[in-house]
Backbone:
């Protein structure tokens, strides 16, 4: 029996699409965290303890959101 030919044969175009998809997921994960952390950077220099609590809370929400 075995697998259908469509599942065993991977074209170059399918590999390129997979590479783009994985790259997009990685970049979106990195850049989305920067999107809400960069506006809070000035707070880090003035009140580090408050900045740390806010950033910890935001990252916790960001990790919990996909669940």
Residues:
């Amino acid at each position: 029996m075995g697998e259908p030919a469509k599942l065993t044969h991977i074209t170059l175009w399918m590999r390129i699409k997979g590479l783009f998809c994985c790259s997009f997921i990685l970049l979106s994960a990195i850049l989305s965290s920067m999107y809400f952390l960069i506006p809070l950077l000035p707070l880090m220099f003035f009140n580090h303890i408050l900045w740390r609590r806010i950033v910890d809370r935001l990252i916790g929400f960001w990790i919990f959101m996909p669940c």
